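Sample 3 of the quickstart, ligand ribulose-5-phosphate:
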Amino acid sequence: MTFDRSIKIAPSILAADFANFGAECAAVEAQGADWIHVDVMDGHFVPNITFGPATCAAIRPHITGVMDVHLMIAPVDPYIDAFAQAGADVLTAHVEAGPHIHRTLQAIRGAGMKAGVALNPGTPASAVAELMDMVDLVCVMTVNPGFGGQKFIDMTAKISALRDMIGDRPVHIEIDGGVDPTTAPLVAKAGADVLVAGSAVFRGGSVQNPDPYGENIRNIRAAAEGVWT
Ligand SMILES: O=C(CO)[C@H](O)[C@H](O)COP(=O)(O)O
Ligand SMILES: [Fe+2]
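Result:
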């Protein structure tokens, strides 16, 4: 995984057909997705349950690019090796998930993955100030985690603060929740480069009719890249 600051669109399979993840991942990649975002929820850290490492391992052979795993679980540490075995490229833990995020990030890198830290909307940028040399990605939640299809919460001031904090380090800023062609330019302008989108990518399409996925991805990317022209 090489670092670059171009806009990357990461469809969240939370909005895909749960009975057909492999084909859904292949379809969005064929339609231009850069990364695949995989939401792991435990019914404890967030009020919803999705799936765990076994499902990630089953999905992995269907992804040629980056598998970006967003853990909404607590605790995190007992499961890090299982997600490494499952083939996660990026493993992101929430700063709110426990008292020892520093140890967690060390363990993620130690297991050979890129380390991400996520912040809930109520958590300030300062919560991750001491972690800048330990992370490869900061995920700014623009919804309260747990469900797809929620309304975007404006976190542009936090994104700008994180961009300043990161400086010239090779650290991605990922935005997760309510990203669509209207909100993408706001977050791209503030300094984000990885845009997660679930409902805004998968709406209107299916594995049998994947062209809408491509149109949705192109529209989000064009809106985000438009802020630089
Ligand atoms: O982490 C998440 C929710 O906790 C999802 O990645 C996110 O909500 C994406 O879905 P949408 O684009 O529909 O908001
Ligand atoms: Fe997510």
